[in-house]
């Protein structure tokens, strides 16, 4: 088993994820895994970074596929005996003018952004080594979507005692409510992406609390963040930040020094803790 440190970035064949891998290759003192659901796209991205003189490694990962997540888990366990840095970056968003029925958009978006990210955490968080760093890429849209929720939902999502099971039930209820076309009556905002990112931010708060309860002495720091509005296939060419600028906050959180005890369980943008 290798004693080398290891970092994994999900959804990193393009966009912000690729920029995070590029920055980690330059700054992280260990192996950096570029992952992609499609090996062809992943290998092409690795080749691109190699052209720049960097040495990322590759592993397949589709966060919608539990078998794929578990294959990566087993590989990391066997080769490294764990994991030092996990960046949950993979995500999807329907375009504003997409005509796919809203209930389908809700189901598909939640499947990847919330349930897929949660499955990665379930399988890989137990592997985190002492002083590990976990970064869940959420969005400022999670804050605005929270503001669009009913008072009752806002209270639940801001609660310091909400459990992961309760959060999963709420995310499942959102999808079911869209199918019955009662989601707005039930207090949800009219944004599937926004609700999925509420899920990612609240999940991060819960996971950080569990780390405090169960592994306090291991000094693991886990946060959610917003990369900003970034020029990628997701956000388009008019966005204000380059992918490299978008990677700055996730990379800052991934490389928090070993003597840092904060931020932890926070929502961070522009390297600044934001109120939730
Ligand atoms: P992007 O260019 O569309 O890249 C998304 C990445 O996620 C791609 O590599 C994509 O792979 C991957 N992905 C999607 N579904 C996946 C799955 N099931 N398994 C594994 N990988 C999967 O988007 P981006 O702008 O870089 O977004 C990265 C993250 O930042 C997302 O979580 C997004 O919500 C968040 N974010 C972005 C912005 C922004 O302005 N861009 C703002 C706030 C938050 P494929 O190439 O195979 O599709």
From TrEMBL:
Assigned GO CC terms: cytoplasm
Keywords, sorted A to Z: Cytoplasm, NADP, Oxidoreductase, Phosphoprotein
Keyword Oxidoreductase among UniProt keywords: yes
Subcellular location as annotated: Cytoplasm
GO terms of molecular function: carbonyl reductase (NADPH) activity
EC number assigned by the record: 1.1.1.184
Protein family per UniProt: Belongs to the short-chain dehydrogenases/reductases (SDR) family.
Name by which UniProt lists this protein: carbonyl reductase (NADPH)
Gene: Cbr1
């Amino acid at each position: 088993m290798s004693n080398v440190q290891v970092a994994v970035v999900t959804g990193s064949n393009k966009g912000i994820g690729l920029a995070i891998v590029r920055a980690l290759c330059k700054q992280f003192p260990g192996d950096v895994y570029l992952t992609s659901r499609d090996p062809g796209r992943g290998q092409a991205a690795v080749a691109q970074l190699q052209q720049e003189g960097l040495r990322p490694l590759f592993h397949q990962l589709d966060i919608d596929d539990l078998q794929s997540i578990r294959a990566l888990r087993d590989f990391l366990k066997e080769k490294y005996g764990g994991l030092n840095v996990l960046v949950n970056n993979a995500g999807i968003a329907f375009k504003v003018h997409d005509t796919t029925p809203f209930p389908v958009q809700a189901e598909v978006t939640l499947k990847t952004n919330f349930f897929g990210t949660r499955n990665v955490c379930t399988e890989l968080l137990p592997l985190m080594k002492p002083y590990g760093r976990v970064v869940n890429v959420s969005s400022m849209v999670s804050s605005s979507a929270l503001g669009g929720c009913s008072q009752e939902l806002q209270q639940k999502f801001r609660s310091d005692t909400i459990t992961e099971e309760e959060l999963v039930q709420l995310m499942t209820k959102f999808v079911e409510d869209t199918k019955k076309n009662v989601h707005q009556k039930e207090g949800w905002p009219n944004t599937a992406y926004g609700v999925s990112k509420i899920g990612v931010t609240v999940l991060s708060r819960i996971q950080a609390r569990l780390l405090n309860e169960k592994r306090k002495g291991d000094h693991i720091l886990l946060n959610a963040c917003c990369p900003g509005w970034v020029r990628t296939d997701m956000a388009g060419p008019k966005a204000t930040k380059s992918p490299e600028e978008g990677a700055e906050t996730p990379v800052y959180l991934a490389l928090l020094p070993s003597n840092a005890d904060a931020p932890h369980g926070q929502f961070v943008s522009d390297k600044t803790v934001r109120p939730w």
